[in-house]
Write a structure and sequence with these properties.
By secondary structure, the chain is of the alpha/beta class. It has one domain: Rossmann fold (3-Layer(aba) Sandwich), CATH 3.40.50. Helices cover 50% and strands 17% of the residues. The chain has a five-stranded parallel sheet, with helices on both faces. α1 packs across α9 and α7 packs across α8. 39% of the residues are buried. The model has no long low-confidence stretch (mean pLDDT 94). The structure holds cytidine-5'-diphosphate. Cytidine-5'-diphosphate binds next to α2, α4 and α8.
């Protein structure tokens, strides 16, 4: 059986998860949020006080970490050694730590099989940074979704304030710029557009417009 795989890559706050979740629902595919997997590992390391700058220290504790996923009402739940941590991994602190540990080859290696296996056995919309370039080079549709840094910071700011989180737009913009820099300039699996990916700038597009575009690209390709 060949599964249909849609890869969506792009920088922080481009709207990947919103679009991927919506398109997956409409097509009855599963949505795989790979960032959540890195965040789960980051949470464990933060709890243990492990320094992400020391790869050997991270590598030493990796065997203690079991990352798995479960779906509840089509929503991806992240399990860390069996504990559902989905509600704990959405903070900026965890996101920044995720970006640091995601630069380590041992961490990427640990998550590779889980990501490929999900795509081999299910029709998926998978989002991340290196899905089209590295994890699923044969995905039938690849999207590189981006937006200006101001738009992305504004979206993240709204998302957090709506959740009641006290935050500053300037600080979020700074964090996003720093994370973009880390993700794009790391040695392993840097964030770049795959050659065969469709480039979509969502700065002046609504969620519905972007989702519609992805769906129509998917139909053209089938
Ligand atoms: O939602 P947001 O874009 O802020 O972040 P995320 O997708 O949850 O990813 C958090 C961090 O994990 C990113 O900044 C990346 O450094 C890393 N990541 C990665 O390296 N590769 C992936 N496939 C997904 C995330």
């Amino acid at each position: 059986m060949t599964t249909y795989n849609i890869a969506i890559d792009g920088p922080a706050g481009a709207g990947k998860s919103t679009i991927a979740r919506k398109v997956a629902k409409e097509l009855s595919y599963i949505y795989v949020d790979t960032g959540a997997m890195y965040r789960t590992i980051a949470l464990y390391l933060l709890r243990k006080g492990v320094d992400a700058a020391q790869e050997s220290a991270v590598a030493a504790v990796l065997p203690e970490i079991q990352v798995s996923i479960r779906y509840e009402d089509q929503a991806q739940q992240m399990l860390l050694n069996g504990e559902n941590v989905s509600g704990l991994i959405r903070t900026e602190e965890v996101g920044n730590m995720a970006s640091k540990v995601a630069a380590l080859p041992c961490v990427r290696e640990k998550l590779l099989d889980l990501q490929r296996e999900l795509a081999r056995t299910h029709d998926v919309v998978m989002d991340g940074r290196d899905i089209g370039t590295n994890i699923l080079p044969n995905a039938q549709l690849k999207i590189y979704l981006t937006a200006s840094v101001e738009t992305r910071a504004q979206r993240r700011f709204l998302e957090l304030t709506q959740k009641g989180v006290d935050c500053s737009y300037e600080k979020i913009k700074e964090d996003i710029e720093k994370r973009d820099d880390q993700d794009m300039h790391r040695e392993i699996a840097p964030l770049i557009q795959a050659k065969d990916a469709v480039y979509l700038d969502s700065s002046d597009m609504t969620i519905d417009e972007v989702a519609e575009k992805v769906r129509s690209l998917c139909q053209q390709g089938r």
